[in-house]
Amino acid sequence: MSVAEIDPVASSTRARIGLSASGWVGAAIILLYVFVAVTGPWWAPYGATKILTGSPFEGASLQHPFGTDNLGRDVFSRVVFGTRSVLTMTFAATILAVLAGGMIGVVLGYLRNWVDEIGMRIVDILISIPTLVLALLIISAVGNSLWLVVVTVAFLFTPRVARVARAATLNVVTNDYVAAALARGESTMSICLREILPNIMGVMLVEFAIRSAFAIIFIGSLGFLGFGAPPPTPEWGLMINEARANATNSLWPVLAPAAAMAVLVIAINLLADSLSRLIDQQGVSPAKGDK
Amino acid sequence: MSGPQPVAKLEGLCVDYRGADGWSRAVDGVSFEIAPGEALGLAGESGSGKTTVAYSLMGEQRGASRIGGGRVLFQGRDIFSLPEKDLLALRGRSIGFVPQNPMASLTPSMKVGRQIGEMLRFHAVPAPQGVPARVVELLESVGIPNPAAAARRYPHELSGGQQQRVAIAMALACKPDLVILDEPTTGLDVTTQKRILDLLAGLKRETGVSMLYVSHDLASLAQICERVAVMQKGRLVEAAPTRSLFERPRHAYTRSLIAALPRIDVPPEGRLEPLAAPAQDALLEVDDLRISYARGGFLGLGRPSSGSDTVKGVSFTVSRGKTFALIGESGSGKSSIARAVAGLTAPRDGTIRFNGQPLPALARQRPMHLRQKIQIIFQNPDSSLNPRKSVRSILARPLRMFGTLDAAGREKRVIELLESVRLPASYAGRRPHQLSGGERQRVAIARALAAEPELIVCDEILSALDVSVQASVLQLLETLQRERGLTYLFISHDLAVVRWFARHIGVLSDGAFCEIGDTETTLSAPTSPYTVQLLEAVPRIDASPQIVT
Predict the structure, then answer these.
(1) Which positions 82-121 of B are in contact with A (Cβ < 8 Å)?
(2) What does pTM read for this prediction?
(3) Which helix (H) or strand (E) covers residue A197, if one does?
(4) Predicted interface score ipTM higher than 0.95
């Protein structure tokens, strides 16, 4: 309490402007990727799988901004085409993980009884298994398809998201508005959705951003190891793997997809960082700040 | 004031804070001085700038603030022109500081003895008997029982009152010339507060240290301060010797602050009793209520035993249209009873009857019409209103649940509810954080009213509010009771408020009643020693110390 209480109405509008400069940069880069993913196939100079668009191992030129690979395919076009599949797979996997993990975490954190106890031990077990090993196991057992990769990644991320959602819920659940809802006789579902969820949205948003950055790298790794999309597909991880053998005489086919992936991950991290700072600020200004 | 050089002196201090639209002045031309051995009280409500003044005395500028003008002199030296190194030596060494919340200011992972010892070592204070012995001596001087053992404890192993004592010991460790106390008793219950105030008064007498005592609670200021300065909106509106301030307040704001103080020593007056009180039928009957929080067995599935009860067999009856107050210190089990009545905690044993019918333990098991009739208002409106919802949707939720109104009817009712708690209709669109503490509590009251209850459980609803706000909220509750014939179960630790407000009272100590009955009789002729102790602990304005020459 005390100190100059800035007019609460004014302070709330200030908190809303929020995103830092680096956050805006991140957001802009992500938007650019989305734009490329959506429109890329219409303006990419060559087809994704068209061979011998030039001679193999060409360097960068006007015709081939990122050069060509061992089959003479245009690396720039392949990176552009790859954007769509990377973004779809990443966001599909992350959305699945955040929805499932969020739901599990909120319910467990709200219940805080033996169900929570057992649920969290299962989560602990799942988290303790190395993700890549588990993913390779699942994929080699079930088969190899893009959607399986998505579901596998979602499955691996779900317990991690659940833990974050539960921690955020524990902070919220002790508030008296949850008690007030209980005293009104609201159902568990209604309390989770109406009272708890709106208050952990910020945390979940940040979690979503962080998880998508992980997902890009993870999906890339699976592709690199040959457990992602099958060969002619322009998938970044797979492209790096294919070009790896010839990296000594032609660096572009390795460098271009790697850089595309790195820049996207950095952009997402910038945005996530800025978002979480924004949420921290908001967490301080209302309610809990002064008591 | 003539005589010796003042310990500290403020000359027209101005402090600005950066807000949404540029700099705004939080402290505006404050001047006062503190004589050696004098305790100056700094009173004012939240946001009046009193804490900012206290911090600037230590040369501390908070984030996003700047000194807009004026000087702070400590023993004749201008604090804000001192180099950082000298300031560091000054803080702790010559100026001690006791913060509001000791749990937040003591390092949780360090034993308290070491923390105090570190203070002595950092400032290289000579301790001929050795630092550990000096630490024990300090802990003893602040009245901690078994000081040698306490020094080996971690902060969380001490009670709130003891933590505050440790903080005081730390502030006094280097024998400073001035101690700044920032709301040191705010989080403590009455009897602990009384003991801390006694301790401070004693320490001041023994050591002759000067004090700046910052508090919103005029009554506790009156206990130890020779002079009181009152701040409002960053300005010093009045500074006078304590007794004359209370007897002849010159400024209108001071008068309103004093008028808002509930006086335990003055019998209630002018309270309207409803004429021809309806027959004394019991609305709520609580019989042999026992509550336990202990969990037994594997995964907490077992039955708790009776030895661990928080509430140990409490029985009382609340008459329709009346107020029953539950009084007790923190930990006495009063909030547990409130939660059991509201259906938030399942009692281990005992029955609660409402309108003669036994109530199921948990709210969810209770039929709709019973849930509607019993509403609860919580202590802290910061926490009881969902920050992501507008006032409109907070109030509409119970209307939709318990009522039969359509959307337009609900909207109309929301406005009526806001009016009934004296809030403008335009507040419907606001979020809780856009309201002040008192306004938030009004919204919480409106939410309870929305269900059209018969019984409202008020769980310490005033303790998070400023004194003048407390008075107006209480007034509102009283009016609502008269207009709607509401029944209140009023939980409080504040005897003064209860004496004014409640017809019947039950004094709880350690989970059981030590006294129960008519408020006036109970408080004017208490039979239990605990009640006597509680009554004595209430700060009184007439007990202030006289000015030393």
Answers:
(1) 100
(2) 0.73
(3) helix A197-224
(4) no
